[in-house]
Amino acid sequence: MNIRLAVALIGLAISLALPTIAQQTVDSKIEQQIRALTTKFDEAFNRNDAPAVAALFTEDAFYGTPDGSFHGRRAIEKHYARHSFQDHHANNRSTTVDRVIAVGNEVRATGRWSETYQESGGGTVHADGRCSWVFVREGDTWKIRRFTYDLTNRGH
Fold first, then answer.
1. Based on the number of CB atoms within 10 Å of its own CB, is 36 exposed (0-12), middle (13-18) or buried (19 or more)?
2. What is the tens place of the pLDDT at every residue in 100-142?
3. For the chain: N or C, fewer Cβ within 10 A?
4. Could you list the residue range(s) of the whole structural domain that residue 116 is in?
């Protein structure tokens, strides 16, 4: 019985350690490119430019929000155009990247976001939360393959 427990604990320790071993620090040039991409995202968002926002995603991207998920660049563009820009007039988007790591051929990042938008009744709301991305190379360009966020705070 004790041997089985020991083997199970060793197996658990190895399985938890492998993802950490697979993570690599990112070259400073790549980290700058990732941070520049999130800045482009904020700039396109603040112009309410759904096609420019969507162009930063891969064709098969996934976008996960507290309100639902969207698959593919076209669906992501439609969501931003309708939900963020038409319905809520969102702006003042600001993203801060806290951590950037390489995992295989991908670069993953986590950070914080904030923005303001209009409620249906006309009041201005400030919202913020945490976000995460998975970036991949398409030719010479980094693209967003996966973007998810949560809503930590929503207030007037």
1. exposed
2. 999 989 999 999 999 999 887 778 989 999 999 999 999 999 9
3. N
4. 25-155
Number of domains in the chain: 1
86-96 pLDDT tens trace:
888 889 999 99
Q: Is residue 48 in some structural domain? A: yes
Map residue 27 onto helix, strand or coil: coil
Farthest CA pair distance, the chain: 65
Residue 148 lies inside a defined structural domain of this protein: yes
Distance between CA atoms of residues 39 and 13, nearest Å = 38
Rounded Cα–Cα distance for residues 143 and 34 (Å): 9
Give dist(CA 130, CA 114) in Å, integer.
9
Q: Is residue 56 part of a domain?
A: yes
Give which of 155, 110, 114, 112 is closest to 135, Cα–Cα. 110
> What CATH number is attached to the domain comprising 80?
3.10.450.50
Burial class of residue 148 in the structure, from the number of CB atoms within 10 Å of its CB (0-12 exposed, 13-18 middle, 19+ buried): middle
pTM for this predicted structure = 0.81
